[in-house]
Specification:
The chain is built from three helices and six strands; from the N terminus they run E-E-E-E-E-E-H-H-H. The protein is α+β, with helices and mostly antiparallel strands and 180 residues long. This is DUF922 domain-containing protein.
């Protein structure tokens, strides 16, 4: 007889918010997706709140031997936590914010790729949690690097280079995309 143990780890924000958007290749953010109250004291023109949600289930025997596991990884955008200043936001800034969401999807794919290499073993729960923490640290560092190198979208040339780079990386990891 097998027991099914389900564990769900949610990153960043509560998913009870029905307006949460999953990343889709054929959907680009619009300013209407940004529903949060703008923060005027930050110096930012817009903020994209996005993150990776992660859940897994483990099947184990009565003797607690892990015999299988499944995972779910999603890149999400959080409209109620995302905002913009209407009098300063441009199409170019929106493209910068879209790329933040695309970067989140890129790291969701990297996460799925790394999960695909994990072998079923009693240590799988610990391995998945460690991998989740690692990918989130890498994602945060990458998002910061993106903002720094593009000067928060003000460096148009760097912005274009990043856009092409992220598109190529997403394409290279297409097999780890979710087909919805």
């Amino acid at each position: 007889m097998y027991r099914l143990l389900f564990i769900c780890v949610l990153f960043l924000f509560n998913l009870q918010d029905a307006s949460v958007k999953s990343w889709q290749a054929n959907y680009k953010l619009t300013w209407n997706d940004f529903k949060g109250k703008p923060e005027t004291n930050t110096g930012a023109v817009a903020i994209t709140a996005s993150g990776i949600t992660f859940g897994f289930s483990i099947t184990e025997t009565d003797s607690h031997k892990v015999v299988d596991f499944t995972t779910e990884v999603h890149a999400h955008f959080y409209p109620e936590k995302s905002w913009y200043l209407p009098n300063k936001a441009t199409k170019h800034v929106l493209g910068h914010e879209q790329l933040h969401f695309d970067i989140t999807e890129l790291f969701a794919r990297k996460f799925r790729q790394r999960i695909s290499k994990i072998k079923t073993a009693n240590s799988v729960k610990r391995e998945l949690k460690t991998l989740h923490n690692t990918i989130n640290r890498e994602l945060a560092a990458f998002q910061n690097k993106y903002d720094t190198e593009t000067d928060f979208s003000r460096n148009f040339e760097a912005q274009l280079q990043w856009k092409m780079y992220i598109e190529a990386e997403l394409s290279a990891l297409e097999e780890f995309a979710i087909n919805e």
